[in-house]
């Protein structure tokens, strides 16, 4: 059987030097950080990806270990395996660069929880990071790469440096990339449960799998939070090995973040025409690469607790864009009506109370499941 490298985990990253932050950026010095992930697919071997894409200084890695997770910061010590980079156990990632570890000859299964430990001997500066990691990470002083449990560890609500895992899988394996904002990334779903909408949809699939390239706070047309979606296409979709389909949810932050950032002053977001033009460009570029592109309506957010986010202008644009998406003139291969899947029947501009993550802007685990259950699996012929 012919095999090739296929993405089995992804975490899209944010520039810590942005002017506006929803998530507090940070760095590390003389510490071990331990982060966990859950694989979306199976393979005969794996390799890991690390990024210093937004670092201001070279990133020294004094060691990196892979292990099977037990719980919390714990690992199975019998599974603890040093990673190598071009044959060595230490490496330096240049400014703006990314690296891939040497292959680890370890059969892995979909749903398996692994833990990655990095020893960072020097001052990293503000780290290239992801907003919503699979689960809470941990940091401790010194080199504790092989520690079975990290005692008195600092908890890390954001992810750092670790951006992906590839597995050696059959060459005909095809996957989908979930691409967009917090509704893709899984904000306000329970950490460590893999209950984002793409993850819950992934569990319905019988062939192929889905990797997540969402960034909470991301926008289609404007940088911050993260590079805007149109600028992320090459790196976060086209460069993902095995991709054949793309699932998209974007727009909430284009409509709401300008008002949130400017509050209490008014601010203007894109018009419906500008946003539709952006979505059309997005679909056209993905189609040009031969991918199947599945769009979605913009989710409801009336009454969100985030001041300045919910405006009448934004709501009007949302309705106009959604009407276009549900019509016949859009450029997507299909459109998932995410808004209808979670809307309150009594007030469709709001999230249904039992699906509300608590802030009126995000869905909880049940809301993410409602979206996943609304997807026609015939759209994902992986």
Automatic annotation (TrEMBL):
Residue ranges of domain SGNH hydrolase-type esterase in the record: 178-370
Supply the InterPro entries for this chain. Answer: GDSL_Rv0518-like, SGNH_hydro, SGNH_hydro_sf
SUPFAM superfamilies per the UniProt record, alphabetical: SGNH hydrolase
Transmembrane domains' residue ranges: none
Which Pfam families has this protein been placed in? Lipase_GDSL_2
Q: Which superkingdom heads the taxonomic lineage of this protein's source? A: Bacteria
Q: Which PANTHER family match?
A: GDSL-LIKE LIPASE/ACYLHYDROLASE, PUTATIVE (AFU_ORTHOLOGUE AFUA_2G00820)-RELATED, GDSL-LIKE LIPASE_ACYLHYDROLASE, PUTATIVE (AFU_ORTHOLOGUE AFUA_2G00820)-RELATED
Q: What is this protein called?
A: GDSL-type esterase/lipase family protein
């Amino acid at each position: 059987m012919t095999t090739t490298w296929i993405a089995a985990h992804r975490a899209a990253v944010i520039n810590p030097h942005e002017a506006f932050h929803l998530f507090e950026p940070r760095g590390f010095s003389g510490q071990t950080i331990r982060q966990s992930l859950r694989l979306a697919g199976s393979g005969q071997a794996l390799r890991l990806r690390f990024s210093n894409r937004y670092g201001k200084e070279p990133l020294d890695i004094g060691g990196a270990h892979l292990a099977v997770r037990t719980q919390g910061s714990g690992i199975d010590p019998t599974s603890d395996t040093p990673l190598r980079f071009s044959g060595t156990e230490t490496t330096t990632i240049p400014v703006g660069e990314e690296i891939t570890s040497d292959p680890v000859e370890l059969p892995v299964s979909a749903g398996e929880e692994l833990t990655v430990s990095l020893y960072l001997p020097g001052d990293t500066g503000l780290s290239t990071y992801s907003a919503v990691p699979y689960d809470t990470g941990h940091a401790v002083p010194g080199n504790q790469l092989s520690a079975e449990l990290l005692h008195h560890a600092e908890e890390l609500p954001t992810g750092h440096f670790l951006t992906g895992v590839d597995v050696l899988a059959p060459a005909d394996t095809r996957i989908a990339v979930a691409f967009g904002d917090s509704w893709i990334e899984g904000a306000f779903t329970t950490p460590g449960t893999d209950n984002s909408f793409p993850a819950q949809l992934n569990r319905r699939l019988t062939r192929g799998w889905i990797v997540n390239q969402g960034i909470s706070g991301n926008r289609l047309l404007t940088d911050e939070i993260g590079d805007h979606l149109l600028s992320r296409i090459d790196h976060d979709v086209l460069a993902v090995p095995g991709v054949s389909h793309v699932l998209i949810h974007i727009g909430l932050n284009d409509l709401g973040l300008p008002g949130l950032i400017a509050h209490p002053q008014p601010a203007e977001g894109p018009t419906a025409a500008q946003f539709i033009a952006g979505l059309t460009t997005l679909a056209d570029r993905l189609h040009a690469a031969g991918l199947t592109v599945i769009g979605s309506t913009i989710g409801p957010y009336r009454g969100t607790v985030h001041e300045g986010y919910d405006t009448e202008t934004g709501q009007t644009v949302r309705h106009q864009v959604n009407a276009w998406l549900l019509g016949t003139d859009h450029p997507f291969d299909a459109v998932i009506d995410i808004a209808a899947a979670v809307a309150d029947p009594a007030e469709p501009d709001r999230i249904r109370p039992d699906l509300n993550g608590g802030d009126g802007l995000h869905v909880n685990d049940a809301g993410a499941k409602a979206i996943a259950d609304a997807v026609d699996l015939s759209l994902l012929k992986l």
